[in-house]
Amino acid sequence: MRKLRSRLARSNTAFGRALLGLLSSGKLDEEAWEEVEETLLLSDLGTQATSELMASLKTQVKVDGSSAEDEVRTWLREDLVRLVDPTMDRRIASSRRPTDDGEGRPAVIMVVGVNGTGKTTTVGKLARVLVAEDRDVLLGAADTFRAAAADQLQTWGARVGVPTVRSDRESADPAAVAFDAVKAGIEGEVDVVILDTAGRLHNKTNLMDELGKIKRVVEKQSPVDEVILVLDATTGQNGLRQAEVFAQEVAITGIALTKLDGTAKGGIVVAVQRQLGVPVKLVGLGEGPDDLAPFDPVAFVDAILE
Ligand code: GDP
């Protein structure tokens, strides 16, 4: 988890330090509390979680400013850990082995999200993590809308040493490509098939129909074990609204929160988990192949408060 700490150091820790500073220096009058509230809201924690945290802190932190910083850190840490919710199951479906249920089929992971959020990059990085765990991985380029998308995925595949199933025809049926990828995965006895999907939002209805269709068509051969929604941590409330649109159409099982290296808005972890009722399972901490980490709630809070 050293990576998580060092990558968050530049941004999120500024938010943690600001909070600690505000809560443990001097008298906490109305104005100081407002500043605490503003800092929490600016981190994208959301209004509900912010009020809960404020209420809890108000019962613990001494208003005369006599709380020691260590004490405040302990209270804040406990509250933040509770909000981030370490009880959620964050294992990804790829932890199942093809032989687990005797069916000999691969785990199937669909990755969805708006273009530009880091979907393809996350697919590539996830493949890298799985390869490092000695899994056979196959990628499926079910974003057939732009030829460049399949090229980009294939480049990632080559980079991390896994094959990519794609169509050579532009505008091929994405569900057909997904079907072919899963078929190749079953026949090739791979451990995990990861499907990259389209994410153009200007034609929302079609996109959502398309994602639903991909899932249905894949399910003719194999259950879809995991649907990961990729969300760009820097997009705040806008990103959350988009997340909701996706969640209405496909049952999301986990969130990959990208670009956490470039934002102080780590509170979005709490906001999105509450909004969708599913855990953040992966975090993107940079553009390179090794910049994806499983999300560890306690390490995350510790990094913020470091
Ligand atoms: P897609 O359109 O959703 O498939 O997005 P891409 O995978 O093409 O990524 C869009 C941009 O975001 C690229 O420049 C990526 O390098 C960048 N990106 C993706 N994930 C991260 C991350 O975790 N941190 C940073 N800093 N950049 C990222």
UniProtKB/TrEMBL annotation:
It is a peripheral membrane protein. GTP binds at residues 113-120, 196-200, 258-261. Keywords: Cell membrane, Cytoplasm, GTP-binding, Hydrolase, Membrane, Nucleotide-binding, Receptor. It catalyses: GTP + H2O = GDP + phosphate + H(+). The keyword GTP-binding applies. Its EC number is 3.6.5.4. It is found in: Cell membrane; Cytoplasm. Residues 279-292 form the SRP54-type proteins GTP-binding domain. It is an enzyme of class 3 (hydrolase). The keyword Hydrolase applies. PROSITE patterns: SRP54. It holds the Pfam family SRP54. InterPro entries: AAA+_ATPase, P-loop_NTPase, Signal_recog_particl_SRP54_hlx, SR_rcpt_FtsY, SRP/SRP_N, SRP54_GTPase_dom, SRP54_N_sf. NCBIfam families: ftsY. Involved in targeting and insertion of nascent membrane proteins into the cytoplasmic membrane. Acts as a receptor for the complex formed by the signal recognition particle (SRP) and the ribosome-nascent chain (RNC). Belongs to the GTP-binding SRP family. FtsY subfamily. PANTHER family: SIGNAL RECOGNITION PARTICLE RECEPTOR SUBUNIT ALPHA. Part of the signal recognition particle protein translocation system, which is composed of SRP and FtsY. This is Signal recognition particle receptor FtsY. It comes from Arsenicicoccus piscis.
